[in-house]
Amino acid sequence: MLSLPAVLSARVQAVAGVDPELRPATRPQFGHYQTNVALRLANSLGEKPREVAQRLVEQIDLAELCEPLEIAGPGFINLRIRADVLARVASEVLADPQGGINRTTDPKTVVIDYSSPNAAKQMHVGHLRSTIIGDCFTRVLRATGHTVIPQNHLGDWGRQFGMMVEQLVDEGLDASSLDLPGAEALYQRANAHLNESEEFAARARDRVVALQAGDPETRRIWRQIIDISLAGFNATYQRMNVLLTDADVAGESLYNDDLPVVAADLEDRGIAVVDDGALVVFVDGFPAPAMIRNSQGGYGYDCTDLAAVRHRVGDLGANRLIYVVGTPQQFHFDLIFAVSRKAGYLPPEVSAEFVGFGQVLGADGKKFSTREGTAVTLNSLLDAAEEQAAPAIALAAIKYADLSSGLQKDYAFDVERMVATTGDTGPYLQYAHARVNQILRKAEAESFPVGPVTVLEAPEEQTLALLLSRFGEVVDAVAVTLQPHRLCGYLYELAGALSVFYEKCPVLKSDGEVRASRLGLCQATKQVLATGLDLLGIEAPERM
């Protein structure tokens, strides 16, 4: 469904030759949109703005959409959309089960790398944003018709598992008896043991070799630790209303057998070279090379991430790669993408995007940590929010606060402000949905007919209908730009317009066609609010 502003802009630009930069009118008497395009053209043409505006008005053909165009002030052009057009568009939204979301004409296979906690450790505040943002991208891109393959790049391989398995054997523990906090405590004991005893450290190193070589007993215990971790992560994902499942797990261990293959391929083709005993790839414009294999023969994150790119493009068939990772990792992924391009693992027709995000800070604006200086667990953060509000409301507060500002910005985790049902918050949007649902319940109880939208005489009705027409355009923009704050801002504006509509336009107290039309407008708005909230991963409650 095309948005009316997009259609108007295209028609004006076809005549003016430049982007008209349509802006919502500041007052109802100025119509719905204004453009200063005549003033900008007059300046370059050396003509009077009103004369240019008059010429444009005579040439722009919008008769089937707008009232006659008006010239105001020094040369502004005002556009007022016809009430019957707004009514038709609102009725189309009402009848559309997608709520006005457009299906792409160019569907892609999109791989999104997000969440990515470390096995045997509880998720902490640092995983909050990656999980929420990645889940939002998954929802938006699927809704617009793309095939999305989430990849939860679990930290499930490496030296720490050698020491954990050895510690578990030393203590005579059955790994299956542990939960995730218990596995994390085991990790801490093993780490302390490693620092205290060289003999234990040697055994832990041997255990890593056994793990990598596929020793059955070592692999069995390692698998138990991974299963414990996944059970803990899945409980948190379910609590957060996040779509990730075990089917989306693609941890570091998945690429273990590919690492020597990637290294050999890069070296054989002269892309990687040996430098000071290490196998590296130099890329123009980067101050440091990618480390494929260190001088001791070990493979690190660079090689694992290259193997992941190769797998995601070659095996999963990705046309678009999205990495939702903290901003400090920008250089690492820029380098990985550059090496992947050089090696042909990332062909020109496949896009790769790094979506960095800022930190979650405490309410005081300082780094969020416990009194001991350690990272706050994600579940304790959810607990704190649920002390202030019911779980669905608390979750809405957290997700909206995370998504509603630019992703690169840090934001303060201020629970009291976030759970408010007034102002620019997630619970405010939930309240708007519950409130309009209450009106529709009462209408149903009275057997009042709902819609179609036919009567839009009041400016508040027209504003609401015009906003409904923009929903598909906003979702399209988020799918392309990966900026969810655009959707948050739109939903906040829609909820505000709905509130003004309530105050100025009685719904249940009106009669006949006017009441049916206003109820249709309420139903369409409810659908868009519910759909938009779901794209953010937020529940749309029937009551509050």
Give an account of the 3D structure.
The chain is α/β, with parallel strands linked by helices. The protein is built from 20 helices and 13 strands. Helix 5 links the parallel strand 5 (109-113) and strand 6 (147-151). The mean pLDDT is 93.
Sequence stretches where pLDDT stays below 50 over 5 or more residues: none
Strand residues, percent:
5-15%
If strands are numbered along the chain, what order do they take across the biggest sheet? 1-2-4-3
SS-based class: alpha/beta
* DSSP E strands, number: 13
Mean pLDDT: 93
The largest pleated sheet is described as: 4 strands, antiparallel
* Cα-based radius of gyration, to the nearest Å: 28 Å
Number of helices: 20
Based on CA inertia axes, which overall geometry fits? globular
In percent, how helical is the residue content? Answer: 40-55%
Could you tell me how far the N terminus lies from the C terminus, measured between alpha carbons in angstroms? 32 Å
Oligomer: single chain
Explain briefly what this protein structure is.
The protein has helices at 4-16, 37-45, 49-59, 83-95, 125-143, 159-171, 180-196, 198-213, 216-239, 259-268, 301-314, 330-343, 378-386, 391-403, 415-418, 426-445, 459-469, 471-481, 485-504, 512-535, and strands at 23-24, 33-35, 70-72, 76-79, 109-113, 147-151, 273-275, 278-281, 290-293, 320-326, 351-357, 360-361, 411-412. The chain is α/β, with parallel strands linked by helices and 544 residues long.
